[in-house]
Amino acid sequence: MKRLTAIVYGRVQGVSFRHYTRLEAQRLGLVGWVANRPDGAVQVVAEGDESALNQLAAFLQQGPAIAHVTEVVAQWQEATGEFSRFDIRW
User: Fold this and answer.
1) Checking CA distances to 38, which of 12, 16, 47, 69 falls within 20 to 30 Å?
2) Is 27 a catalytic residue?
3) 17 φ/ψ angles, rounded to the nearest 5 degrees
4) Domain at 2-80: CATH architecture
5) For residue range 52-63, what is the model confidence (pLDDT) as tens digits?
6) Is 36 a known active-site residue?
7) How many helices (H) and strands (E) does the chain have?
């Protein structure tokens, strides 16, 4: 099990990015969270199977149709097991 921490930059707030990220993570069987950051980016922390995390990482490069992603900064670590579901944090 792995952990992906990603910061997504671009037009990613106010475009349902968190909602669609949660749906994709849940579809892939991942746990963790997604949240808007004060700097206009979106942060994602997800844990699960490495293959599923790679699929989520590919989704983050694009996001929902109305979003415009300019950069994704990702870090990979070992999973901590601290999450039981995938949430939107406010």
Assistant:
1) 47
2) no
3) -60, -45
4) 2-Layer Sandwich (3.30)
5) 999 999 999 999
6) yes
7) 2, 5
Catalytic-role residue among 3, 11, 36, 85 = 36
The answer to whether 47 touches 1, Cβ cutoff 8 Å, is: yes
Q: Which tens digit of pLDDT belongs to each residue from 2-54?
A: 999 999 999 999 999 999 999 999 999 999 999 999 999 999 999 999 999 99
pLDDT confidence bin for 72, thresholds 50/70/90: very high
Q: Nearest Cα to 48, choosing from 75, 25, 69?
A: 25
The answer to whether 69 touches 9, Cβ cutoff 8 Å, is yes
Which pLDDT does position 15 carry in this prediction? 96
- Which entry of 18, 27, 37, 89 is annotated as an active-site residue? 18
DSSP string, 31-46: EEEEEE-TTS-EEEEE
